[in-house]
Design brief:
6 strands; about 120 residues; 3-stranded antiparallel beta sheet; Immunoglobulin-like; alpha+beta
Length: about 120
């Protein structure tokens, strides 16, 4: 009986771990001068570019998504202004929108993303 109880507990933790792992995915995003539609390094005023991210494995329900910035290459002669936000979250992927304004010039920007369900 004791062995059966221990086996049940072990199986529960294995199943729980597999379930939690399947509900969280992560990756990196990157955008730079020279990419199609990249305009954050030219002109002035508000400019933006977007990056489409597909999850390695689609979710059964729409997940929550968080992004971070880990690298930024900007013109040292101007103020560094930027905004990064998540748009259009679906079960298959999402869009990252990167924006700058005024005279700021961004040559490249990158970061990480994490998607999870509760």
């Amino acid at each position: 009986m004791k062995k059966l109880s221990v086996l049940a507990v072990v199986l529960f933790f294995v199943a729980f771990t597999a379930m939690v792992t399947a509900q969280t995915q992560s990756g990196q995003w990157f955008s730079k001068a020279g990419d199609p539609a990249y305009n954050l390094d030219t002109n002035t005023g508000e400019r933006s570019t977007t990056i489409e991210i597909d999850y390695p494995k689609p979710y059964d329900v729409k997940p929550k998504v968080m992004v971070s910035v880990t690298q930024l290459d900007a013109d040292k002669e101007t103020n560094c202004r930027f905004n990064v936000e998540v748009l259009s979250v679906s079960r298959d992927g999402f869009t990252v929108k990167i924006k700058t304004w005024a005279d700021s010039k961004l040559f490249s920007i990158s970061g990480y993303w994490i998607a999870y369900t509760e």
